[in-house]
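My convention is simple: the sequence line spells out the residues, with the fold written below as integer tokens. I include a record here:
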Amino acid sequence: MPITRAHIHSVLDAYLNEHPYEKEDLAVAISLLEDGAELASRKEFRGHATAGAVLVNPHGQVLHIHHRVLDKWLLPGGHLEESDNSLQDAALRELTEETGIQAGSVAMARILPVHIDVHPIPANDAKDEPAHLHIDFRFVFRTTARDVTLQEEEVTDFAWHEIDEIPGDTLRQRVRAVLAPR
């Protein structure tokens, strides 16, 4: 069953219950949901949901991939698909597709997103896509896997970086908090 507006809304609400001070940062997502937008649809060009994975190895390093089209080092992630049942499933699927790391060797560290980021995506004439927003729901996963097999259509390289190299102070601090011993 595809991801529903209700699922996205409930994940966003749960996230905002933990981080109410981010409501202004996520105003566009809230507004789109209130307007009835189908955020699970890649064709919703006012903005649509994507899912990302922060994958951490036993050494506390985070997997980064080099995205072919954007020519940037990013965390694995991407668009939602009809086969995804939840945002968490989408993040795991994207992770396995882009890196070849099997889902069986990955464990979710936290059920809720560690961070939700809204960022602009430039127009892509080749895909007939105007500039739009991605509302990226980012989840933390752990793995002991070592082998990475890149999806070469989208990814040109990978590297394990220290947590200090995660882009964005908020994301970096929250990943540290999730990984801290209790």
